[in-house]
């Protein structure tokens, strides 16, 4: 079978060197990649590097290899076009249909899905002109990944950093798998909030009351939502995972911290998915020094108090009636019966019920579940990658949002 054909566009920013890692991941995962750098990109990484890593010749202008009409042929044959980094200048050209080199000409001929991974200084990203160009591209169906925050060129720090190439690769993989050429992604223009990981309730400066959640299901929900065009806020509780490209990650520790962050983000969200494992209880008090073991003395019992019920609070106090609230229920027995009872008790729209224990769900790359809908059907999702379950959840959420 022919390898999927990907066009990797590289524009003239200092982050161009990171595209070498993205190219390596794309080629090593079985894709045929053609690199189209701009002339300014070649000031950062030379043509020989791109040619050696991709196995294809590198052209920048439409007047090179004219007999092959490359600005038409390359776009027609592509299964995906990704531009990383995408500078402010490149975004402006793309939004206004400018075509003064091979990459921007190809942007006008490609009919495959298009992904932009912007990278620039914070002031340039936040400028109204850039934001308007980004909005235009998203309205046309392109996936524009939100840049990461961190160290920029020189001593500057802020939003505008190119996301990790490994995470850009994950977005490419998901968009390519969905094959939404010519269609506006079904979560475009939507803001979704996702909680992930497991909360930890301090007992003393060393110990805590926690759970086994790794956060992998919540992170899969974030990655798939980005690939479907959403603006994503990920509230992450103690998850030792790389930030998903395009998601705003808000780190938290305890259930009360998670509640505060989720409620703040949910104020303007179209959907909230509570995938985090939130501790139901916390110690009634946290001691200031480590609890010592004393020979011949039994430890004092630890009194517990209830944590806030965040899912029920979200369901009962929505900022807009059309907001979709999704809960998760990890059960060890009577899975469906307990799930139905929890769905009714919490008042959410969907409840994703899965069985845990015995090596299932927590910490693994796979999951299986049943999605229960309030006033609707049950949707079993068989054992498979957590991204598969995430996509099935977004299918239902997107359908409900489209009819709200």
From TrEMBL:
Keywords: Decarboxylase, Flavoprotein, FMN, Ligase, Lyase, Magnesium, Metal-binding, Multifunctional enzyme
Molecular function GO labels: FMN binding; metal ion binding; phosphopantothenate--cysteine ligase activity; phosphopantothenoylcysteine decarboxylase activity
Known EC number: 4.1.1.36, 6.3.2.5
Domain DNA/pantothenate metabolism flavoprotein C-terminal: 187-398
Stretch list, region Phosphopantothenoylcysteine decarboxylase: 1-191
Cofactor section: FMN; Mg(2+)
Co-factor binding comment: Binds 1 FMN per subunit.
Signal peptide boundaries: none
GO biological process per UniProt: coenzyme A biosynthetic process; pantothenate catabolic process
Region (Phosphopantothenate--cysteine ligase): 192-404
Binding site for CTP: 280, 290, 308-311, 328, 342, 346
The reaction(s) this protein catalyses: N-[(R)-4-phosphopantothenoyl]-L-cysteine + H(+) = (R)-4'-phosphopantetheine + CO2; (R)-4'-phosphopantothenate + L-cysteine + CTP = N-[(R)-4-phosphopantothenoyl]-L-cysteine + CMP + diphosphate + H(+)
Span of domain Flavoprotein: 5-173
InterPro entries per UniProt: CoaB-like_sf, CoaBC, DNA/pantothenate-metab_flavo_C, Flavin_trans-like, Flavoprotein
Pathway: Cofactor biosynthesis; coenzyme A biosynthesis; CoA from (R)-pantothenate: step 3/5; Cofactor biosynthesis; coenzyme A biosynthesis; CoA from (R)-pantothenate: step 2/5
Source superkingdom: Bacteria
An example Gene Ontology CC term for this record: phosphopantothenoylcysteine decarboxylase complex
Family matches, as Pfam families: DFP, Flavoprotein
UniProt xrefs under NCBIfam families: coaBC_dfp
Role noted for this protein: Catalyzes two steps in the biosynthesis of coenzyme A. In the first step cysteine is conjugated to 4'-phosphopantothenate to form 4-phosphopantothenoylcysteine, in the latter compound is decarboxylated to form 4'-phosphopantotheine.
Stated family: In the C-terminal section; belongs to the PPC synthetase family.
PANTHER family: HOMO-OLIGOMERIC FLAVIN CONTAINING CYS DECARBOXYLASE FAMILY, PHOSPHOPANTOTHENOYLCYSTEINE DECARBOXYLASE
Name of the protein: Coenzyme A biosynthesis bifunctional protein CoaBC
């Amino acid at each position: 079978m022919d390898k999927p054909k990907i066009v990797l566009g590289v524009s003239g920013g200092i982050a161009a060197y990171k595209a070498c890692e993205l190219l390596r991941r794309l080629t090593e995962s079985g894709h045929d990649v053609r690199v189209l750098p701009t002339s300014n990109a070649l000031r950062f990484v030379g043509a020989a590097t791109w040619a050696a890593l991709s196995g294809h010749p590198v052209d920048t202008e439409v007047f090179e290899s004219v007999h092959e009409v490359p600005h038409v042929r390359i776009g027609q044959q592509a299964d995906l076009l990704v531009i990383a980094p995408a500078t402010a200048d490149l975004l402006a050209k793309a939004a206004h249909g400018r075509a003064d080199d091979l990459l921007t000409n190809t942007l006008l001929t490609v009919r495959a899905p298009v992904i932009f991974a912007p990278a620039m200084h914070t002031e340039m990203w936040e400028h109204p002109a850039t934001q308007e160009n980004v909005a235009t591209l998203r309205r046309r169906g392109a996936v524009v990944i939100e840049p990461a925050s961190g160290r920029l060129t020189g001593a500057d720090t802020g939003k505008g950093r190119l996301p990790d190439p490994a995470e850009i690769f994950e977005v490419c993989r998901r968009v390519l798998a969905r094959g939404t050429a010519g269609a506006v992604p079904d979560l475009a223009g939507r803001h979704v909030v996702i909680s992930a990981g497991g909360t930890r309730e301090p007992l003393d400066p060393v110990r805590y009351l926690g759970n086994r959640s790794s956060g992998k299901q919540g992170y899969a929900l974030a990655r798939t939502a980005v690939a479907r065009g959403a603006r994503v806020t990920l509230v992450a509780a103690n998850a030792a995972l790389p930030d998903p490209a395009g998601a705003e990650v808000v780190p938290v520790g305890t259930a009360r911290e998670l509640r505060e962050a989720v409620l703040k983000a949910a104020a303007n969200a179209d959907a909230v998915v509570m995938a985090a494992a939130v501790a139901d209880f916390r110690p009634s008090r946290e001691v200031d020094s480590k609890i010592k073991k004393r020979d011949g003395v039994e430890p004092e019992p630890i009194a517990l108090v209830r944590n806030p019920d965040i899912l029920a609070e979200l369901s009962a106090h929505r900022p807009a009636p059309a907001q979709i609230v999704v809960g998760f229920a990890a059960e060890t027995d009577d899975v469906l019966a307990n799930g139905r009872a929890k769905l009714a008790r919490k008042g959410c729209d969907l409840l994703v019920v899965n069985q845990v224990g015995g090596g299932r769900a927590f910490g693994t790359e796979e999951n299986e579940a049943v999605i229960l809908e309030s006033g609707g059907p049950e949707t079993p999702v068989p054992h498979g990658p957590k991204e598969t379950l995430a996509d099935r959840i977004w299918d239902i959420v997107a359908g409900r949002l489209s009819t709200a």
